[in-house]
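Re: weekly structure request thread

Next one in the queue (131 aa):
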Amino acid sequence: MAHLQLVAVIVDDYDPAIAFFVEVLGFELVEDSASLTNDGRAKRWVVVRPPGAQTGVLLAKADGPAQRAATGEQFAGRVGLFLRVDDFDAALARLRSAGVELVTEPRTEAYGRVVVFRDIAGNRWDLLGPA
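Done, posted below.
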């Protein structure tokens, strides 16, 4: 048996990213520990995840010019992350009240309701709910 444990999202800074994922998206802060880079510099190991989920998001602070350039563009302008929720209207209201950028208007597709939004780093997500 196997499962995808973590997906890394490059962010500018840890604390604003934690606030976005926890307060806006409703994720749980699973871990926020001191750590070291491969060359011995201080960093943090920060993991958030939706309640009840197995897969978490590692919030990785950009380290160096290449990573800073990739912040918000990890998926080359495509939707790269998909958040399925039970209550689409409540989740959409949270996004709107927090001033999150909605890239599209909410719409209904065969697979359910969907709206594209940008996270704090600028990456595109689908918010997905039941039809």
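DSSP finds three helices and eight strands in the chain. Strands lie at 6-11, 28-36, 42-49, 56-61, 79-84, 107-109, 112-118, 124-129.
Next request, please.
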